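Amino Acid Chain and Its Fold in Token Form
===========================================
Purpose: to set a sequence beside its fold so the mapping can be learned.
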Amino acid sequence: MGTLGLNIFLHLYRDQRDQKEHLAITFGDFIRSRSIQTEQPGETIKDRILRGADGLQAGKPFNAKVAPLVRVHSECFTGEVTWSARCDCGDQLQEAARIIHREPVPHGVIIYLRQEGRGIGLEQKLKAYNLQDLGFDTVEANEILGFPADAREYGAAVEILHDLGLAGENGIRLLTNNPEKLRAIGGSGTGIIIREVVSIASLTESSLRKKHSSEVYSYLRTKSVKMGYIL
């Protein structure tokens, strides 16, 4: 798929446990789904063409010593679409793409997980926003609603990384500031080797402007103090 500045390949995965549709946005010519060519029961040639099975070329061999960059990003409608100043999610998504694209040879993937509001869904997230209007922070708001501070899980991301051929000795470079995400993806039994953790900062002009607002400053401070983020 062509974009304004680069070419990407978009892979869609449906989680059979909850039917959520997650995405893998791959950059460069090297990372491709390994399962897409597998024949599905009862499918026709037309079905295969429509889902991209026969048109997608296999990833080219990549012999660089540097592991691919990986960003596991959770959906954020308010931060990515409605320009919320209560988070830096939209800026982090853009920064991840920029970091991958500016590599000497672009080689990476953004896994886009459909777990809005740190896993509680958009409706509950908007209720949490109403509580934040009353002075509660993002963690307190979730807990008042009966949810943990972070209800996300990363099993789908691990499975996607395996399908993309990124579970191996070469390992990955994970773009994150979240130690819990690091443990969930690179922990024992996942088969994912994290060679390097790359801090992802919100460096866009819009983010720098927002960081002067009390809301985003409070949000980032809460993530650091209460959730252990490295900022």
Notes: The chain has a mean pLDDT of 87.
